[in-house]
Amino acid sequence: MSNLHCLASLALLALTASTASFAQTAGPWNGKQCAVVLTYDDALAVDLNHVVPALDSLKLRGTFYLIGSSPVVAARLPEWRRAALRGHELGNHALMHPCDGSLPGRNFVTPDNDLSKYTISRAVNEVRATNTLLTAIDGKTARTFAYPCGDRQIGGVYFYEQLKNDFVGARGVTAGLQPLAQVDLANINSYMINGQSGDYLINLVKQAQRSRTLLVFLFHGVGGGHGLNVELAAHRQLLRYLQAHEQDIWVAPMVEVAEKMKASKEGSGGSK
């Protein structure tokens, strides 16, 4: 082999190794140990009163899953728009937050908002109408969905199948830390928080760092505002830990993390 061929072969090997090294370093979590997504459901007043200011003060961004019919959306549109301008995601939590009233413990579900009485087309149309509303607020078309009450089926049919092209991904309510290969973009795991301490929240993050996985927090009330609640001090403790370890933890809205995962999966031939 000539010297020229040897040099070319060595250059090709070096480029291949460099590319592999970059891919490993970049990874699915933006080159960091793990990804943490902060999600807040139901378009509550405390989101604007407590959460957005807390996130902004530490330059963190989250995802707020808005119910299209929420009076807090209607009454405070300019504030939601400003939150979106600062990089927070306004996610879709359906128009009426329908839940399956046929399941045990669902006495709170009204006949008008009983998902088990919906047709597939009604569920899909209401979700799409909410997307139209959200685009009118933030001007964006890429976003994610969160299943109200975690309910995914109507009469045994997964209604999100008709919505996959409308969203980058959908967040569910099953707890668990997952590496990229195990993430189902149609039902992303999350930890529903209700009364846990700041130490508990931070320990989940540390587990995600060690296992190099995705961690999604699901909050409702923060300092009140909902029956499912986390104390302001615990929430603040979590945010401060995330900010202090930003070199190791990728904290981003769900839409950005889902877009990264989708691209990684497609690049590796994954289908989920």
UniProtKB/TrEMBL annotation:
Q: Which residues form a coiled coil?
A: none
Q: Which residues form the signal peptide?
A: 1-23
- Pfam families, from UniProt? Polysacc_deac_1
Keyword set for this entry? Signal
**Any idea where the NodB homology domain is?**
34-252
Q: Does the keyword Metal-binding apply?
A: no
Instruction: Cite the InterPro entries for this sequence.
Output: Glyco_hydro/deAcase_b/a-brl, NODB_dom, Polysacch_Deacetylase
Extract the PANTHER family matched here. Answer: CHITOOLIGOSACCHARIDE DEACETYLASE (PTHR34216:SF11), PTHR34216
Report what the protein is called: Polysaccharide deacetylase family protein
